[in-house]
Amino acid sequence: MYETDNMDKFAEFRTHVPVLSHTAYLDTSSTGLVPDFVHDGVARYQEDRYLKGGDSVWRLPGGEETGTIGMMDWAKTQIAQMIGAKKENIVFGNNSSHIYTLFTSGMYFEPGDNVVLVENSWIANRFAWQVRQDDGLEVRYAKAKNGAILPEDLFDLCDERTRAICISLVESFTGFRMDAAAIGTYCREKGIWFAVDGVQALGVMPVDVKAMKIDFLIGNDYKWMMNYCGTGYGYISPKLLKSLKQFGAGWMSDDERFNTSKQELSLRDDAGRFELGFPTVSGIYGLGLSSAKYLELSADDIAEYVLGLGDYLKERIDTAKGVRLAYDFSRENRSGIHVLCIDEENGVTGEKLLAAGIGAGVKPGSTQGTQEMRVALHYYNNKEDINRLIDVIGK
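^ thats the sequence. predicted structure below, dont judge the formating
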């Protein structure tokens, strides 16, 4: 286990996130913080567009400059390296919900086929499948037990008509991290597509699409990836890419994107065929910068640091009166998200948290007389953030 306060590179990184100079921010699972290098890079682009006009020149880490298409290619390379993929299998879109519909709308099935989801998982993913029920698709739901979903809970719902298993790698409302490798192996053996929502994992928890045998993966920009809102990204495996229905096309879908005299469409042979028009390039640039920083700091070091902060949070909770973990998962099933139960008599309010410089919210708990708080620990957090929180919410 790493000693979290000895990880100098994370202490140095923290200096690039201005909000942390005055706030113990613990709400990244809702909206993450933006570091200075993302802000400055995006601001430079906007200033050039405003003052100079035309397309902007993008400055990459190390000082190299490139145009927009070159920048997008660079950003895809960073994201691909982050998840163990090739850049040709990365696609950008408006948000993660938009990217998810590439799979839910493009997957081939026959009436009577089914997909297996997790009950009470993120609503956008459930909604995206539910609209396909009118086409004869059956949607099945695995139920969590004490916040945990085991691979067998999903497998028990599968049969010869199952076309996909769809999970969140980290459950948004509990922080439970699933055994994606076991699920992916099962899906590969059974000929079932494996789709993963990585929004609450990507940027802090390791993801390897090959080792986990993932066919489809989505991520977003504004949580753990420390970017502004408005850009989603995804991974489509080579096999799935050949199978997905192309339900729309635009000039970015063509293999000659700037040949505007063409009369007939020739689809690109990579995942970019689903990028219909000019994207939110500032968001893509920010994602590239955050992914590059993730690679620089090391996936394993980041995960160990974040899990180490979780260990420390648990230690502090054990000594605080009227505070306990709602779910106490084993370390391999933990993530950066932790749900706390707080006795109402502790007197924790949103106003009290705000006055103390704590960036977190509190809501009524599922048990009478309690409140609930979701604490998100990013690698820009430290032990002092946790100490400040416990000093406020503990009796």
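The longest strand covers residues 162-168.
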